[in-house]
Please model this.
Amino acid sequence: MSESAPETLVVSTIGVHWRLILDVPSADRARIARNWSRAVVAPERAIAAPGGLEDFVVSPAFTGGLGGMTVDTLGEGLDYAFSRSLTMASIKRRAGGALMFHAAGLTAPDGQAIVLVAGSGTGKSTASRILGRSLGYLSDETVAVEDDGRIAAYAKPLSLIPPDADPLAKLETGPDDLGLLPAHPDPRLGAVVMLERDAACPEPVLEPVALIDALAGITPQTSSLLLLDRPLQRLAEAVCRGGGPWRLRYPEISQCVALITGLVDDLTHGRGPDPIQWRAARGGPEVRERHPNQVDARYQRGPCLDAVESEGSVLIASSAAIMRLDGLGAALWLACAAPRTQADLVAVAERELGAHPEAPALVRGAVSALLEAEVLQISTT
Model:
């Protein structure tokens, strides 16, 4: 398809490196190179980096796999398809290694990064375009946080929706063309902020959020979270940085510059609220024998990958899903660190939540639900 031999370009994306082999017309190659100029690195640096250098082929002849995409459209339609494909391939390479947020990222002059978490089409790119004129631009799509809090930049072009256009018709525009500030060369996590655009909100508000509320809201906006060791603990450690978790509620992001730069100033000078109290919790050993929910049975926690408890609520990660427990369910699960009878659990419920004439029936129903969800199991000891 290209008028000459395919052009190659080496880029860094969330801590992995790709040799882009661009088998497309010269105009498309030039536009991609311009849009991705901030992600370009020297080949020798990429080869020496952990994970090495892998090829990513952009060609009509590509036949499938992780390392490339099949070109079926040219011009600006190619740009967004390429960006999505490279992002997904990069996430797959980092799965199980980095804590990855579906988020925009911006850096303060001292390197502390603000991570703005939000779902697709809810304002990350617009926030990057507006706030990136005051803070350094890291990414408008994915932020990868390493074990030590360092952030692997992803200086991709911004995916912006033109006015009055189809929301799926995104155009890729490089950060240089938008006049965005460069990111700090060694960014590290400063704070995590949940974005919540609300047209009914009279003015922007940056507010603290209860930890379990934040974790439950943020987990859908992570990638490959359950492949990490201690996934919920790592997430809790991250979102509690900088006095968080935080939520930014706003009608228009252009009204939020002072709030975000104020948060950056607080981070720089060590100001902010006291850290949220939380603790890790463990599941129990797997018990293969199954029993009915009997009055004389003893119950204990089921096995899980990880769990976090804060302010009487619990978030539990199994190999397949993440489950939140509040109120009675949380109290019963927390009590079952050691085997407990139903009578024990009724006493726990009344001590933690107050006496109730239907306490035995309520506990019996809650235990049945927790057994069904496999976060409790029958103890054989």
